[in-house]
Amino acid sequence: MDFSKPKRPVDRVFLHCSASDSEAHDNIETMRRWHLERGWRDVGYHYFIRKSGELEAGRSLEEVPAAQQGHNTGSIAICLHGLKQEKFTKAQFDRLIALCREIDKAYENQLTFHGHCEVSAKTFPAFDYKTVLGLTESGDRKNAPASEPQRVEQPILELTAKGAAVAHLQALLNEKLQIDLTIDGHFGQLTKAAVISFQRKKGLIDDGTVGRRTWEELLA
Questions:
Q1: For residue range 35-48, what is the model confidence (pLDDT) as tens digits?
Q2: H-assigned helices in the chain
Q3: What pTM does this model have?
Q4: Domains of the chain
């Protein structure tokens, strides 16, 4: 599904989640039904990303979304299926990164990207969207850890580290080990175990700390 720039003015993209991990709710038609039951004339989101990474079209891009009250004008709304952070999938994040990169390119990198929580008392989306998309505090997509890893610094990383460099690490481990770590920017026990596995594979000191030699092998 290619992104086609709408004629209406757009300057922001808002990210949402469906607040459900039920397989039965993992589709745009369920979102549409829920929104119609609320009296809306259509689903509020323009895009819906399923756990599989499949991208589904919702409301027409030519129409203003009904997704973040008081902040709909000039926006595009994207929803990922999910509620618990650990249940969002790599496939979803990969699709989100690709879609946002395409949207940003169409607007010559003039858009900003935001979570619903920035304009609402709600805590959604329930994942670290700033790390996933490599956003600055103002919402610019300048660090883009998984899609543009060359921009991410390579500090020493170990258990409990957080941030874009950890997300970059997780993306590289998924690629090198053919595994499916969640790219959430949090260096937890699963990430440490993957680092140790990679270090053993490459004959490095298997201490679970990502230093210069481990980075060199990951980036080779």
A1: 999 999 999 999 99
A2: 28-37, 90-106, 129-133, 164-177, 189-201, 212-219
A3: 0.69
A4: 12-133 (3.40.80.10), 161-219 (1.10.101.10)
